[in-house]
Design a protein that fits this description.
The complex is a heterotrimer. Chain A is built from 15 helices and 13 strands. By secondary structure, chain A is an alpha/beta fold. In chain A, the strands form two sheets. An eleven-stranded mixed β-sheet of chain A has the order 1-3-2-6-8-7-12-13-11-9-10, with helices on both faces. In chain A, a hairpin with a 2-residue loop joins strand 12 and strand 13. Chain A is globular. Chain B is of the alpha+beta class. Chain B has a domain of 49 residues: Glu-tRNAGln amidotransferase C subunit, N-terminal domain (Histone, subunit A). In chain B, strands 2-3 form a two-stranded antiparallel sheet. In chain B, a hairpin with a 2-residue loop joins strand 2 and strand 3. Helices cover 39% and strands 20% of the residues of chain C. By secondary structure, chain C is of the alpha+beta class. The longest helix of chain C is centred in the middle third of the chain and has 20 residues. Classes of the chains: A alpha/beta, B alpha+beta, C alpha+beta. Chains in contact: A-B, A-C, B-C. Chains B and C meet through strand 1, helix 3 and strand 3 of B and strand 2, helix 1, strand 10 and strand 17 of C.
């Protein structure tokens, strides 16, 4: 009963009620959710009350969507009125939102039951969910290993079957990479597809909310619920979200899959990862897809570009955490300057400070052109790479991450090497494109993720290929021990 | 590649000045660690200097959009109790912060 | 040291004016723009910089910016960009201000000001006076005007805050502003004042801003430097912040000229600094030196899309642009041929000018309307600190009062006495006159009665009049009016007195 599709079927067949589903999910959250460090806050009473309302709707023949009655976890950077939002940061430890974010609103409008909040890297900065005041989240496949990040709690919760789906946010791979590590589907929609209203900003021009599920079909349901124009977000796409489920035909004949030669070089990803991804592509080829080699020549530069753009924006976005109006104010501060310095120094963790400093530095006088503006120019080149590549193919396939989940703590002292791991994911954020990671194999019992990238606004084709792949394979049916 | 390294290595003083701008207080050890980390990151991103970007328009937004606007209609402010509910310190409906010691912006 | 530093130095002034735009809601949030509410009662989560909020541009400000651009002969830029200006201050909730930096919405324009024809520098050079007080027109460049959000208010006043905290009120945070930057074309405190008056008048005419200085809707920073006459290079400038009245602008510039000239006279150097004006001591003082130049780390706000304005929109605004002060002045001169001073007063405010035109049309006499409005009405308004549109008096009401005076049905004095009430409460002049018994008395019997008493009591004056001297006639008329308690029709009194004294020649 752990997948969204199974829950939906059971609810529709009246085999289970939403109240029962939520009760079970709450129990799992208290149990494995806490053991894994995946769940950091529950709204049990409210969720049960809402589940009862959902059951009443269903009895009245008034189901709102495929998500009706299904429990969901939100990454703890999406606000909901009256609920805490911490971003896993000391500085927001005492914060309760006075307003509703779009993601929460739309999930509730679709009938989903928001169970609580999932662990993450502080302010979504990290790739391991270790930078959290709640402690690290663990990988359900091997608790000694990282679940990835920054939306690691959401990925781990879905992999462990705590909820059937969850939301994360993806600024440079923060949905797709943990999905890859945890063996679930994680999707980053086109930039602007899902409203950022109520998503605590990390890097405004890159951030995007998306779903974690087990299947592409489920991801389509969630995206239909949360996507679409929102006038409260100036960067929200005006285009209506097309109906996605009809696109899931299971047919890939006539589609062309591009393999960027830069993603398959010898000194790139772990050869076992490459091999698993190649097998995945072969499966699609056998099903009728055409496979071509494409080139994304600026791939060696994307990580640098990403870290300059993201940290510059973050340094400004995080200036509001100053101890004045909300959040943590340091004790015993007697002048304004001390309030700022001590609240921020005590409130932010090391990785957040590192990125604030980098971002501040690259925007500061004398460095702006050499770093920030340069990165924005390279961003243009990266977009151009994809425009050219998509003239030759419909989706681009490759590894989501160069390796499988590594042990917790393994890269704590080496930020640069951790950053370099983002090489396959950050491009989609720089170019605003939709991307999805789906399980395509395993190495020593650990899941491997294959990433598909699509044209802007073309989530439909992306999901069509992902769904077709899942119809032909059973990687998505594998579950971690104990789930 | 050394010749392409346009930027000089970040110093402790740079880190301290930057921390000042960002209103972060760093211990000596933190300054040391940040100088090392930022130095390594900047060494890596200096690879961009090798790219010729003359005449390339910068991208601020990946997806081009028309200017979104809203009509000039006011709705009442939120309940002041809600506005101030998270305030670390308040008096009546004002936020209270410690006094400014010197005159900065006003 | 000679008293007037302007004999040695030329002063160079540029002004930055912040003016609140006339909108219902804020620049990037739907919270209302209101003045005088309790702290934090007019805020949206956006204005509080709550985590996760996003800005959306208020469409109204675009047309207001276009209007200003057209009214100042500027270029309205078809593309402008909102940037973030990053700095920490508690009345700046986001830690950055959204402002336009490299690409402002309006640039490269000018406005005209009136300056004394002989020029300010000629002051004190006696014997070189040009013989008249004529003014000439000087063109002052407008470098740019850009949209930005206002900050909230920090209340340091111990009377309010009690012990040792600063209170933060964010009601003003996010209120839309245009910052209008002049070229350094101003050469005296008086020119700076003239520029501000002219700019404020334009802003009110085109209904871009109420520009009420008392409400903080119109604030000014002044950049001031000195250089030796004839020098082509600018001296080091200082910036005097937050001047919020015309008197303070002129006072502060005067004080800063003095301060800088004393330093230069002593062979010192001006340091680049931000200054404050101490109104009580009439002195400027250094707030902070700009040695460590602020590093605001401007960059394009990634939450906002560049503002694109198409030509059609500019044309639509142009078509509806009201007559500007300079155009109205010209038209009034030609159309009404009034005294120069009255014209200036009437055109000084768009509402007063409109009121005048409606009144003149209704009463049929532009001259009478101008006299009543520019003198009597304006006095009543000033005493009550009212704008004409805030008074209960309608232009048509004043017109009927003027007609009653012209027709001799009420004396000018009685009419003037009614004005305060009409300004405060309005009403129908004709009915009021009847109700109060203020109708001018034209009844010959009554007038003859008063006249007989006056003639009897003033034999000497009567004799002079009889001998052909008209001068004492005014005195006699005054006596009759006094007896009539001001209600007699003066024309009738004069006529009857002459008939009775000279026997109706």
């Amino acid at each position: 009963m752990e997948s969204l599709e199974a829950q939906r079927a059971a609810l529709e067949a009246s085999e289970i009620s939403s109240v029962e589903l939520v009760t079970e999910a709450l129990a799992r959250s208290e149990d494995s959710g806490k053991d894994l460090g995946a769940v950091i806050g529950l709204r049990a009473e409210a969720a049960l009350a809402e589940a009862a309302e959902s059951d009443a709707r269903r009895r009245g023949g008034d189901s709102r969507s495929p998500l009706e009655g299904a429990p969901v976890l939100l990454k703890d950077n999406m606000v909901m009125q009256g609920e805490p939002t911490t971003c896993a940061s000391r500085i927001l430890e005492p914060f309760v939102s006075p307003y509703d974010g779009a993601a929460a609103e739309r999930l509730q409008a679709a009938g989903a039951i928001i169970l609580g909040r999932a662990n993450m890297d502080e302010f979504a900065m990290g790739a391991t969910t270790e930078n959290s005041i709640f402690g690290p989240a663990h990988n359900p496949w091997d608790p000694a290993r990282t679940c990835g990040g920054s939306s690691g709690g959401s990925a781990a919760a879905v992999a462990a079957g705590i909820t059937g789906f969850a939301l994360g946010s993806d600024t440079g791979g923060s949905i797709r990479q943990p999905a890859s590590f945890c063996g679930v589907v994680g999707m980053k929609p086109t930039y602007g597809r899902v409203s950022r209203w109520g998503l605590v900003a990390f890097a405004s021009s890159l951030d995007q909310i998306g779903p974690f599920t087990h299947t592409a079909r489920e991801a389509a349901w969630v995206l239909e619920a949360i996507g679409g124009h929102d006038p409260r977000d100036s960067t929200s796409l005006p285009e209506a979200l097309p109906s996605l489920e009809p696109a899931l035909t299971g047919d890939v004949a006539g589609l062309t899959i591009g393999l960027p030669k830069e993603y398959f070089v010898d000194d790139g990803a772990d050869p076992a990862v490459i091999s698993a991804v190649r097998q995945g592509v072969d499966t699609l080829e056998r099903a009728g897809a055409k496979v071509v080699e494409v080139t994304l020549p600026h791939t060696p530069y994307v990580v640098s570009t990403y870290y300059l753009v993201a940290t510059a924006e973050a340094s400004s976005n995080l200036a509001r955490y100053d101890g004045a109006r909300y959040g943590r104010r340091a004790e015993g501060v007697e002048d304004l300057d001390a309030m700022y310095r001590r609240s921020r120094s005590e409130g932010f963790g090391a990785e957040v400070k590192r990125r604030i400093l980098l971002g501040t530095y690259v925007l500061s006088a004398g460095y702006f052109d050499a770093y920030y503006r340069k990165a924005q120019q390279v961003r243009t080149l990266v977009r151009g790479d994809f425009e050219q590549a998509f003239e030759r193919c419909d989706v681009i396939a490759g590894p989501t991450y160069p390796e499988v989940a590594f042990p917790i703590g393994a890269k704590l002292d080496d930020p640069v090497s951790l950053y370099l791991g983002d090489i396959y994911t950050v491009s989609a954020n720089l170019a605003g494109l939709p991307g999805i990671s789906l399980p395509c194999g395993e190495i020593d019992g650990l899941p491997v993720g294959m990433q598909l990238l699509g044209r802007a606004l073309d989530e439909a084709t992306l999901l069509r290929v992902a769904d077709a792949f899942q119809r032909l394979t059973d990687h998505h049916e594998r579950r971690p021990p104990g789930a | 590649m050394l010749a392409l390294r346009a930027m000089s290595r970040i110093t402790r003083e740079d880190v301290e000045r930057t921390a000042e701008l960002a209103r972060l207080s760093l211990s000596d050890d933190e300054v040391e660690a940040m100088t090392h980390d930022l130095g390594r990151i900047l060494d890596h991103v200096d690879q961009l200097q090798a790219l010729d970007t003359a005449g390339i328009e910068p991208t601020a937004h990946a997806i081009p959009l028309a200017t979104p606007m809203r009509a000039d209609q006011a709705s009442p402010g939120i309940d002041p109790e809600l506005a101030l509910a998270n305030a670390p310190l308040r008096e009546a409906s004002a936020f209270v912060v410690p006094k400014v010691i010197d005159g900065e912006e006003s | 040291m000679t008293a007037n530093p302007l004999e040695r130095y030329e002063v160079v002034i540029g002004l930055e004016v912040h003016t609140h735009l006339r909108t219902e809601s804020k620049l990037f949030s739907p919270a209302p723009v209101r003045y005088g509410d309790a702290p934090n009662h007019d805020v949206h989560p956006i204005d509080l910089a709550m985590p996760g909020v996003l800005p959306v541009l208020n469409e109204r400000v675009i047309d207001l910016a276009i209007r200003l651009g057209l009214a100042t002969h500027s270029t309205v830029n078809t593309r402008s960009v909102f940037s973030r200006k990053n700095y920490f201050y508690p009345d700046l909730p986001k830690g950055y201000q959204i402002s336009q930096y490299e690409e402002p919405v309006v640039s490269d324009g000018w406005i005209e000001i009136e300056v004394p024809a002989s020029g300010e520098a000629g002051k004190g050079k006696k014997g070189k006076k040009k013989g008249d007080s004529a003014t000439s027109v000087k063109r002052i460049g407008v470098t740019r005007a850009h949209l930005e959000e206002d900050a909230g208010k920090s209340i340091h006043d111990v009377a309010v805050t009690g012990a040792d905290g600063t209170h933060i009120d964010l009601n003003r945070a996010g209120v839309p502003l245009l910052e209008i930057v002049s070229e350094p074309d101003l050469r005296s405190a008086a020119e700076a004042g003239a520029y501000l008056r002219s700019l404020r008048s334009i802003l009110r005419y085109i209904e871009v801003s109420d520009a009420d200085m008392e409400k903080g809707q119109f604030r000014c920073d002044a950049n001031v430097s000195l250089r030796l006459h004839g020098s082509s290079e600018f001296g080091t400038r200082t910036e005097i912040k937050n001047l919020n009245s015309f008197a303070n602008v002129e006072g502060a510039i005067g004080a800063e000229i003095l301060r800088q000239s004393e330093i230069l006279d002593d062979g010192g150097e001006i340091q680049q600094a931000t200054m404050a004006y101490d109104v009580d001591r009439r002195r400027t003082r250094v707030l902070r030196l700009k040695e460590n130049a602020d590093d605001y780390r401007y960059f394009d706000d990634p939450d906002l899309i560049p503002l694109l304005i198409d030509e059609a929109r500019i044309q639509a605004v142009r078509a509806e642009l009201p007559e500007l002060p300079e155009e109205k002045l010209e038209r009034f001169r030609e159309q009404y041929n009034l005294a120069a001073e009255a014209t200036q007063i009437l055109v000084g405010s768009r509402s007063l000018a409109d009121f005048f035109e409606r009144c003149a049309e209704a009463c049929g006499s532009a001259k009478a309307a101008a006299n009543w409005i520019a003198r009597d009405l304006r006095q009543e308004l000033n005493e009550r600190n009212l704008e004409v549109e805030d008074s209960a008096l309608e232009a048509e009401t004043l017109a009927s009062l003027i007609r009653l005076v012209e027709e001799g049905r009420v004396t000018a004095k009685s009419a003037r006495d009614l004005l305060p009430e009409l300004v405060e409460r309005g009403g129908d002049p004709e009915a009021l006159i009847q109700e109060r018994g203020l109708e001018a008395v034209s009844d010959t019997g009554l007038i003859d009665g008063w006249a007989s008493q006056v003639i009897e009591a003033n034999a000497a004056a009567v004799e002079s009049v009889r001998e052909g001297d008209d001068k004492p006639l005014n005195f006699l008329m005054g006596q009759v009016m006094k007896a009539a308690q001001g209600k007699a029709n003066p024309a009738e009194v004069r006529k009857r007195l002459l008939e009775m004294i000279r026997g109706g020649d």
